[in-house]
Amino acid sequence: MAGKTINPMLKSALEFGPIILFFIGYLRLRDQVFTIGGTDYDGFIVVTAAFVPLIALTTFILWRLTGHLSKMQLATVVLVAVFGGLSVWLNDDRFFKMKPTMIYVLFGGILGVGLLQGKSYLKFVMEEALPLQDEGWMILTRRLTAFFIGLAVLNEVIWRTQSTDTWVYFKTFGLTAAVFVFFMTQAGVFTKYGIEEDEADNA
Predict the structure, then answer these.
(1) What's residue 124's pLDDT?
(2) Where are the bilayer-spanning segments (predicted)?
(3) 94-116 vs 134-161: helix axis angle to the nearest 10?
(4) Quick one: how far is CA 183 from the chain centroid?
(5) Residue 146: closest CA among 185, 174, 173
(6) Where are the beta strands (DSSP E) in the chain?
């Protein structure tokens, strides 16, 4: 069932606001150490502790306003809670840094399983917003599967070999830009295999 339509600016604020606030919070607190209950926590862990309930809250608000959440949104908030919670509980930032890897491996794996079955699970998620011929969906799904796995590998390389500052910039801006560029470069698929609105209604 389709969700309710809300102001696009509000929707973007709810979806990207927590990420921007995480970035700002990290820049302000990264050099500080907080002693809580006799344990020292650096700024990254403190900001992560704030980020987890914040993204849960904004996701809940988005659900209340639209009446709908995508499977991707649900999976993301669950993984944020799990890996962010582990980082805070164990006072170890590695778990939160692994979170994008797990998200992209999960999405890429799900799409890959569908491809092995000769199906495009991406079509089931995005068909209403982006009507394509079946061949177009299969091409886009194969490319997106490879893209997700590539991002997972890239995230692992960056957080394991680079500074926390570099990883935070990569997570905040690099991943978002990569997704945007990927879909921009798929314009040929959308043009060649796109279904006109009248055709989609008659299909």
Answers:
(1) 84
(2) 12-29, 41-62, 74-90, 102-122, 167-185
(3) 160
(4) 14
(5) 185
(6) 33-36, 39-42
